[in-house]
Every structure is written in C-alpha cells, then in structure tokens.
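Good day; I would like, with your permission, to put a structural problem before you. What I wish to show you is a protein chain and, alongside it, a tokenised description of its three-dimensional fold. I would ask you to consider whether the tokens describe a fold that such a sequence might reasonably adopt. You will find the record immediately after this paragraph:
***
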Amino acid sequence: MPEWSQFLNAMTLALVRVSGMVALAPFFSSAALPVRTKAVFTLAVAYLLAPLVATLPSAHAVINVSALLGELAVGLVYGLALTLLSEILLFAGQILGLQLSFSLVNLLDPSSSIQTPLIGELLQLMGTLVLIAAGLDRILLASMVRSFHVVPLGTYALEPVTALGLVHAASGIFLAAIELAAPVLAATLLIDVTVALMGKLSPQLPVMALTVPLKTLAGFALLAGSLALWPRFIEARFDALLDLAQHLIAATPAGAGG
C-alpha cells in the first residue's frame, strides 16, 4: 500500500507538470486537438513517468500546496517560453501584412479566438508544420522528461528571477519578428524610395496607383523565395527558447517541497 500511495502521488505531481506544458506549448495547445485527446495523452505520459521519476534522488513525492504549485510552475515555464515562438510568427505576419497591403485581411484564430492577420496565420501554420516535420514536439517531450532530473518531484521553488527571465525573453519578440520580415521590409522600402523619386522626376506619374501593386508583387516574390529559410529560423528559435526554459528551471534553487 505505501508503494501504491507513492505511485499515485508521483503520478499526480507529474500530471500537473506535464499539464502546464500541454496547456501552453505550441502544437500541444492547439485548439485543433480535441480536449479529450490532450487529457488522455497527459494521463498516459504521467502514468509512464511516475515509476521512473519517483525513484530519482532528492524526489519528494508528497502532495501539498507548495509541491503542486512548483510542478505547475515548471510546466508553465516551458509552455510560456515556447509560446513566444508563436508570438514572434504572429508579429512578423502583422508586419508583412502591413507591407503587402493585407493589414485589413484578418482570420479568426481558433487557438486564441481573436482576429489575426492572414500572413500571421500563414506563418503560424508553417511553424506548426515545421514542429511536426522536424520532430520538435518529441524534443520538447524529451526535454520535459529531463527536467525531472534537473528539478526532482516536489522540489521546485518559483523565484522572481524566473519571471524576469521570461519578461526579458518576451522583449526580444520585436527584434526576432523584424529579422524574419527583414527581406520584405527592405524590398518594399526600396520600392517606396524608387517610386517617390520617379514621382519627383515625373509629376504626372500615378504614384499611388503604382506603389501598392509593386510592393505587393515584390513582397510575394521575396516571401516565396525565403520559404526555404523559414524552417531553419523556426527551428533555431525553438531550440533557443527550449534552452531558455531549461536554464530558467535549472537556475532556480530547489528544496521547496521538503
């Protein structure tokens, strides 16, 4: 009976940690996945992990408020850190949509139930495809399993440095989005300058009638040409955010659950 009780405690704590990650992390948090499927998946992962993580050194498989909050915090740190990837792609889509004259074309995002730009939705769909094709979802699960070695069950203590690290990472969303949209931004800027100079040389030239179609055509051409670079960009950002999540939980002192 004591072993069965310890197994249930370990499974509950592992379930809380994995649930925090599944609730926010890209792909796993998608509204396209049924809630029951997510629940069964989370239960299966927690059931398989429980006998392994309960026997790790320093594991404290005892259910109390601090242990539950600590396990939830670990999952949320992973989820929030990787959610920044979706925000980067969405922000880059907003910039591209503005440059390509698609700023008024919005779609309803089923994940957040808000209106998102058409190009932003395209980038988010591509991000999901890259995650699946590159196996990054399995890498995320493997990292979550390794987190039990770094921070054993019931020993995590959420510190202000973790929140500050996430805020600092969120401040890089603008720069990363600009990097992704840089080719289109540069091309449309050159077109604006060229058409403006042509308008000065020839006042009869219909500048407004030329600027929008030229920017749209050039932007789409560069967008199609840079498709091969997007998977590398998305994978690099995913790896960086995953390393950030691992660093944040590893840098926080353990021992809250004792």
Summary: Residues 2-251 form one domain. The first helix runs from residue 2 to 24. The radius of gyration is 23 Å. The chain is about 75% helix and 5% strand.
